[in-house]
Design a protein that fits this description.
The structure holds two protein chains of two kinds. Chain A is mainly α. Chain A contains three helices and no strands. By secondary structure, chain B is mostly helical. Chain B is built from 26 helices and two strands. In chain B, strand 1 and strand 2 form a beta hairpin. In chain B, helix 8 packs parallel to helix 13 and helix 13 packs parallel to helix 19. Chains A and B meet through helix 1 of A and helix 26 of B.
Chain lengths: 99, 629
Amino acid sequence: MLSTPALVLSIMLFGLGLIGLLSRRNILYMLLSLEIMLNAAALAFIAGGARWGQVDGEIMFLFILTLAAAEVSVALGIVLQLSHRFRTLDADAFCEMRG
Amino acid sequence: MINLIWLIPALPLAGFLVLALSGGRLSRSQVAWVGCGSVGTAAVTTALVAADFLPIFPGRESYHQTLWNWIDTSGMTVGISWYLDALSLLMVAVITGIGFLIHLYSAEYMADDEGYARFFAYMNLFVAAMLTLVLADNLLLLYLGWEGVGLCSYLLIGFWYREPEYGTAAQKAFIVTRIGDTAFAIGLFILFTQFKTLSIQQVQSLATEAWPVGSNLAMIVAVLFLIGAVGKSAQLPLQVWLPDAMAGPTPVSALIHAATMVTAGVYLIARMHHLFTLAPLVQEIIAVLGLATLLLAATSALVQHDIKRVLAYSTMSQIGYMFLALGVGAWSAALFHFLTHSCFKALLFLAAGSVIHSLHHEQDIFRMGGLRRHLPWTFWTFLIGAAAMSGVPLITSGFYSKDWILWSAWSSPLSHRWIWFGALFGALLTGLYSFRLIFRVFFGEVRTQPTGEPGLAMRVPLVVLAFLALTVGFLEMPHTLGNVTLFSDYLSHALPAMELLPGMDESHEAREQIAVTVAALLGIGLAALLFLPGALFPARWSDQSKDRPSVTLLQGGWGFDRLYDRMFVRPWCSLTRHPGDILDRGYEWLAVGAASCHGWMSHTQTGHVRWYAATIAVGTLMLIGLFAM
């Protein structure tokens, strides 16, 4: 079946995204990693939809696409604000909300 | 007219609401009109209801009125419903009648007090609560009134709340009576679980069917109700609140002692008499408690220095007589003494208030004296009250009621000879302490200069009550003296008559009455010998000798206060004092634990986004792992 390699690919992509998210300090790269993780999840839905012959997978993909667009627009706004205020994109510098 | 019965408790309640919500916008005379008017109208309504109710007596002995359902859940229906019979009508008449006179008196007595409206608001609420108590058709409504009376006594005893001492007295009265109330409430729960109803009539008829005489449950419930009654009526061993309760204004003492709170216990036992007849042992306990209280209080009254304390102890003593009568099954005699006692005790307190008023709030009888000429109205009314309390034969009401009780104590099958002897000795002591007061306050030289007689609003209640204190006794006269039985005939519709021991006839009764007469007169004579200025045997022990241990013991009411202080108050206080509080300690540990946990947890809040992402990832992995297993 086609779905198994697709799922393996999506797991690998998700893992890479997670590793990127955890290891990168630049907040723009962290956003990129998040996008990779979202796309990995979307691929898993597509694979599942194709495997069961259901349209739900594609609908979920559309949702995730919308979500990703919304998330990026909000996140980029935050990133702009952060870089404006801290003059850096280092995520570890934004730790003023520590408990 | 009889359907106006709901107005009787509603009117004082409305008076309370008007006064409480007016927020000081009413003038003093308006306050007095509302305060006295509401109770006065209730008294008039009572008269109208009585006029309607009394003629239909033989055919229908009680009248019900249900206004609405208060609580209606599965298995329990409690209505706001009133029950009128001979007993509750008597109580209502006394509460509204005497209550009105006391209100009228207060209108002048409290005239200079800054809390004028507050005072009348509390007094009206007090009367409303007491009326609810006596008119209630079910035990829960009765309990509402019962607690309302307790609340109002707390508010009124602590009326002058700026004095910390008075606040303490109020708390003491509240807490001590609460012990009784808790027992009473437990009794209610038992009755409800047994019979699934709280209607007084139904509970009693079901109990008589279900429980044999002397059965365990009947005994337990009777004892619990007795503890409640003992707390409210200031009988042994919960009597300690009453002498301190005179911290409130004098009209309050008159209301508490004469018409409302302390008589609630007597009413409860009389109302639940079917239940108590199921428990003969408990009845015996009631008689013994009554006797013990009356002797204890009478001996304490002998050595008090404060005029109101003497009267407070005398109330305990007279209520002791009522309990004694209830205990030997002489229900009507107890209520007859309640009736006469309400008249003469209200009179005594109001007259004492008039003395205190004219002496600039002086209450120590050793700083009084010679008031006979300066306050003639007060003197004569006080004298009538004291004579009625000591039971001066033939002319005073107190004689007829006390004699009836003593005759019951002699002739009842439930009584013993020594109970009678004790009560007789109590009668002697009553004469002694009442006339000690008269001789100290009104005779001899003037020690504090009085300002003069009270005005009309205070004099009218005194005269009316003095008239009642003399005449109410003629409602019931013994076989040997005219054989008038108006009162017992009236109450026989609500309470069973007492059976006499076999072989009791008029010669017994005459001999017994002579003994009572002699005891009362002997007490008064002794008082004259001991306390009249220029007396034959001046009684040094009640004068200055405060240091004598026996006198100190009596002054402190036989040391019950100190005993309770050692047994309960101090151990409890030491347990709950701030740093060493055992109960608090546990909660403190809990708080410290929570605080340190929070300290640890707050370290995870680093503010690093990547750390949060990592914890989320690890947490998700753990959850997946958990479900995969």
